[in-house]
Design goal:
- This protein is of the alpha+beta class.
- It has one domain: Creatine Amidinohydrolase, CATH 3.90.230.
- The protein contains four helices and 15 strands.
- The strands form four sheets. The chain has a five-stranded antiparallel beta sheet. Strands 1, 2, 4 and 5 form a four-stranded antiparallel beta sheet that branches.
- The two termini are 27 Å apart.
Length: 247
Amino acid sequence: MIVIKSEAELQRMRESCRIAARVRDALVRLVAPGMRTRELGAHAEEMIRKAGGESAFLGYRGYPGAICVSVNEAVVHGIPGDQVIVMGDLVSLDIGVRCDGFVGDTAVTVMVGTVDPQRVRLVRTAERALQAAIAVAREGNRLSDVSAAIQREAESAGFSVVREFVGHGIGRQMHEDPQVPNFGVPGRGPVLKRGMTLAIEPMVNQGRPEVEVLDDKWTVVTRDRLPSAHVEHTIAVRAGEAEVMTV
């Protein structure tokens, strides 16, 4: 069942989204060669707590980290640990915050220092795909219009989209209906209605779309071990342009 949020509920949800966005932007400024990914996780956990929220990821289905930090071929769900960030890496930061009963979810891929031009193009394509999806996430359009916009932007640039993992509805729960795939045919699926809230998250691979999960049971990597980029915003559907809540 797709939950439509009231204006009062959206107002409460904006706070969790605001905290998630602030933490995301602070972490982007912290990422540097020589850091271990667990340092980013520790910083995030402290910032979320000081802002009056709690990590929506820590303990979720047993996940052991406060945020997800996924490097290079890691697509999503990378566990903060001893991995050292080096020049040229792509570092995806995925932050989920629960506050006042609602969840905000956002992600960004950071390019560390001087990055290979193909990697730059990959990240910029993922960012454009997210903006293209947001542009069509408005009342009266279909859910698959959002999915198709992501696929079109990624594949027209020569990249691929992950199919096994998807965006999702969001609100009182981290994952609500509907699922938001990163591929699809326009004009299909549920009609978007004012008050729907979605976490739209393109996962764009430099190589093939296939992925696999590592032995830690969480980290999702590209099967061909080529880099991936992951970006995400939580949005609310409106009559006109969608409201991007994680800004």
